[in-house]
Design brief:
With 227 residues, the chain is an alpha/beta fold. The chain has four helices and twelve strands. The protein has a seven-stranded mixed barrel with strand order 4-10-9-7-5-11-12. A hairpin with a 7-residue loop joins strand 11 and strand 12.
Length: 227
């Protein structure tokens, strides 16, 4: 019986999803349509059409690595476990350095999920959301050194926004560094300030799309980390 289950405080880390979610100009907006109506048809049903990289989602290595693993090939263990939550709050679109991240993430452990809070998730419905802070190019190597298994950010990407890239900029250094080593990336999370400095247990299971380069996911956290 459900009354016998231990009480758990669940914290939703997922941004709401609809046809107006922020998305890259390179991708179409998702579409939602009611195709059956309960008053007319006896049931309600919706049709959903969406790119794999809008809303809260996970990037599989196949997203940018030609022979990388697809989302359905990745072990479920990769998407759940103890996490480190770091707060590197920003008011401007600017880089986050290795030194700053290392100071804020002094308790990160091998095998952790790393949640990076910039505060930008609070601007999800604002125009300025697309001009977000990003991780400096060498942060990817630092993350590999720490043994992080999943990187999750409250921005559209851990890499520099398209709107602020200078000529000749390597478009996706963090993506290439992590995905080439099998470290998955989650984007567009909502990470509350109350989680900063804690070690919750995080679950973020994506849809098992066959051959998928990524997939929408529901991310949640519980306050106490698993052993």
């Amino acid at each position: 019986m459900t009354d016998d289950l231990p009480h758990t405080d669940w914290i939703d880390l997922t941004q709401p999803f609809d046809g107006d979610v922020p998305h890259s100009a390179a991708l179409p907006a998702p579409e939602l349509e009611t195709i059956n109506d309960v008053d007319r048809d006896g049931v309600n049903a919706q049709w959903i059409g969406t790119p794999t990289h809008v809303g809260t989602h996970v990037d599989a290595p196949r997203h940018m690595i030609a022979d990388g693993a697809t989302i359905d090939e990745i072990s479920l263990e990769r998407f759940a476990g103890p996490a480190t939550v770091v707060d590197v709050a920003r008011e401007e679109s600017e880089p986050i350095t290795v030194a700053e991240l290392a100071a804020a993430a002094d308790d990160v452990r091998s095998g952790d999920i790393l949640l990076i809070r910039t505060g930008w998730g609070d601007r999800y419905d604002c125009e300025e959301y697309k001009r977000y802070p990003w991780l400096a190019s060498d942060v990817g190597d630092w993350l590999l050194e720490q043994g992080v298994k999943l990187l999750a950010v409250d921005t559209p990407s851990p890499d520099r926004p398209r709107a602020t890239r200078p000529d000749g900029w390597d478009e996706y250094p963090i993506h290439h560094t992590l995905l080439s080593e099998g470290v998955v990336i989650a984007e567009h999370l909502s990470i509350p300030a109350s989680l900063a400095g804690t070690r919750p247990t995080v679950f973020g299971f994506p849809l098992s799309l066959r051959g998928g380069d990524g997939a929408p996911a529901r991310f949640v956290a519980t306050p106490t980390a698993a052993p």
